[in-house]
User: Fold this.
Amino acid sequence: MEPCAVLLWGWLLLGCSWGPGPPAVGAAALSAATYELDDAYGLGRQFDGIGAVSGGGATSRLLVNYQEPYRSQILDYLFKPNFGASLHILKVEIGGDGQSTDGTEPSHMHYENDENYFRGYEWWLMKEAKKRNPKIKLIGLPWTFPAWIGKGENWPYDYPDVTAYYIVSWILGAKHYHDLDIDYVGIWNERAFNSKYIKLLRYTLDKHGLQQVRIIASDRLWEPISFVLLLDSELHGVVDAIGAHYPGTKTVPNALLTKKKLWSSEDYSTFNDEVGAGCWARILNQNYVNGNMTSTIAWNLVASYYEELPFGRCGLMTAQEPWSGHYKVEAPIWITAHTTQFTQPGWSYLQVDGHLEGGGSFVALTDGLGNLTIIIETMTYNHSQCIRPPLPHFTVTPQRATFYLKGSFYMVKTLQVWHSRLDFESGSSNLFQQLHPVKVWKGSFSLDLNVDEVYTLTTLKTGQKCGYPEPPPPQPFPSNYKDDFNIRNPPFSEAPNFADQTGVFEYFINASDPGDHVFTLRQVVVQRPITWASDADQTISLIGNFKWVNMTVTCDIYIEKQRDGGVFVAGRVDNGGIYVRRTKGVFFWVFSDGTYRVTGDLAGEEILMKGLSGVRDNAWHTLTLNIQGTSASGLLNGYPLWENVTISQPSNGWAAIGTRSFEFAQFDNFHVEAS
Assistant:
């Protein structure tokens, strides 16, 4: 096993704390209880692993643009075994060109006759995860679908053979182009399932030699999928796991009756401070203790999207500043390690009740080869609330817990101890510290448990708390930013820092233009996708700093659509993600009919100024939008077109580019200067 690099930074010695740390502080033992761990009468359910979601949507958008070594460090904290979060599962969005929470992710098939397995960043992320942990399990799940799947309807099940072909193409592409084996595939995130489609998906997978790919359904609630599985034996035969979202640690009788694996296939979604860590610690144990769930998957993996978008910083860690290199290993990373570093998919839970008498919970797992891992959490009500569902009140008090090891664990003499204490007063939590091993005397040991603590007791000696030198300090987005998109072989399909909120903006090689605009950025979604959220009727990509007030945005634009085509540049853009339809800002539009407009909203309903511009389609023009205080002005090709438009709201926001409808258009030489 490779030790962590020991790094000198200033005078801090970083690396792994192997230690014997300070001994545990004895809590005032208010209550005492005993708990038995015994495998003599068989084991509980098989453990399937702890994971996280990239996507649903565009949650890893900014991660890819980090410079080395910072990007690799972030990936190590997430995926490297016995290092940080050491995740067992990576679940990714199968991009469908539609808005799926914090942005759109590109499809591998924008159009019926189009296939490209190098778009977006999920392929890259899966490869990076596999590079660090070849055993990591991979899951794909669609949120949205390209329009052609529905042949004009906002529904993916009218032509189930087409949808199955599309999803199986993604799985085959993963293998063929990236040597990635997808382990599980889902149906349609948090939307209706269709039994005929699920059966056809299984048939199509098998026909292409993908028998090993398992199906999870339905990534919504326990019902109606559990009830339908009990009624339909053919469907029961093709669904391998029931995945519920935000189950609040509870399951339902029908789900248990199916005898299927039960997963919390999306959970957490909570701001990643100490309370978020408390939420995560509580559900990692109690999803099994209360709900028999053998896998819990966090949304989301890493908060790598502009923080002012919906659900800012709801990742296990934060990496939202590729321009500075700054990132933060948040408390949920080390809470994850308490389980992931001392278990593996394929281990089994012991049959225990799991509730502690003074409040809190414990689980115990074994590899069946004599190893034992016990994870204890004593999270209090106020310090462990997740974003959803509402948490019924409960109390936790300091307590003494005595464990009796029986069956094949009777011979265990010592257990390694890892400890976290979440501190909500001073903010100086102890996270994932190794303490002195516990001696097991005649098959028993006792622990004094305080509130808001996590303990892992294990026979494994492989745990490590690893680290890198502090990353660079945080910096705001550069106030003077240019991109000419002149890159011949881009590593990714999208330009750095642009966050698409409706539509997809990709690097494009403009073979027909021999002039200055060979390499451009092009909006490529030309029909409204099968949506998951309320995508706008216009396309838009955001960039910059939400706190910007005064700005000059310049961009060369090329309208491709005749008659009613149009494009915009914008500033003080105040919204995105699932709220993109209600976006306000200052929008400077030009249309292929030779007119222009200035509007206070993306929808184009609040018209501040309009007139003739002389712009035409299939020609390059330069738009400049200048916003200073309460006044805005616009230039076309360097000459004033409109001025002295009064701006009241919003007072700040991002810069943006976009189109009037789902239409082809190109952008070049983007430049923003802001303050």
